[in-house]
Write a structure and sequence with these properties.
alpha+beta; five-stranded mixed sheet; two-stranded antiparallel sheet; about 20% helix; about 30% strand; binds iron/sulfur cluster
Length: about 170
Amino acid sequence: MNIASSKSCGECTLCCKVMAIETLAKPAGSRCTHCRSGQGCLIYAERPAECRDYGCLWLVDDRLGPHWKPSKSSLVLTTSEDGIEIRCDPGFPDAWRKEPYRSQIQQWATAGETHDVTVLVVIGERMVLVTAEQEFDLGIVRPDQRIVRELEGTRVVGAALVEAPELE
Ligand code: SF4
Ligand code: SF4
């Protein structure tokens, strides 16, 4: 969607598949109808602000090597209010379990737990919370649902979905 730092999107268009674009009513996990393989965005000059403003973590973080390029890894890294999201191409739902990705994801989860940083794998509408000790497969998470963690100190010992209005 964008170009930043010394890296560039090149042939990659994976964010145009894995990200939800509210303006276009495009759900997460299905390729945008404006995206063409080998051509990129067909409405690039008029693309929504959500697309203009977006750049995945791989583009801007030099610590993420070439193997993390989304077109190679099938994984798009983004930050959230709570931590890191690893958005997996639904066509390759186990891509995040391959090495070296799974070990790196575990390192982030282990380091993050002591700082209240969450590590969430998103596969289409399905989400898996990865913690230092466990994986919590939350299944399909609707946009109006929120993930609530049960903590013992900084240790995550449980995770559940609640309707967003219940939190208000
Ligand atoms: S996923 Fe990242 S590298 Fe790929 S097109 Fe989107 S912003 Fe560019
Ligand atoms: S409008 Fe263009 S940049 Fe935005 S998701 Fe669709 S193809 Fe990608």
